[in-house]
Please model this.
Amino acid sequence: QVELTESGGGLVQAGASLRLSCVASGRLYSSHVINWFRQAPGREREYVGAIRWSDTRTYYTDSVKGRFTISKDRAANTVYLQMNALKPEDTAVYYCARGTSPGSATSWGQGTQVTVSS
Model:
């Protein structure tokens, strides 16, 4: 069973950057996709983007394209979410989740809070 642990959240001002990390405790396979989701207070969980463990393909929801970048370090079993030009509407708890296709998730991390002040 792979456990996922997010870190890197915090409180920043609008326009700042943050990098979130998602460390997997067990082995990830080429069929796996690591997704990022977020959930703001009072709102449904929203898909942010994903990266395939097998190659460099990445996927993003329209609202973060050009601002967020997902990457990975296979040796460290870690996926990153680089967030630039943050906006107050990016405020949410961010989760990484393992699945087999972009947007699908079967195993979730505990989440990390990102707060962007205006």
Summary: The radius of gyration is 13 Å. The chain has a mean pLDDT of 96. Residues 62 and 118 are 22 Å apart (CA to CA). The chain has no helices and eleven strands.
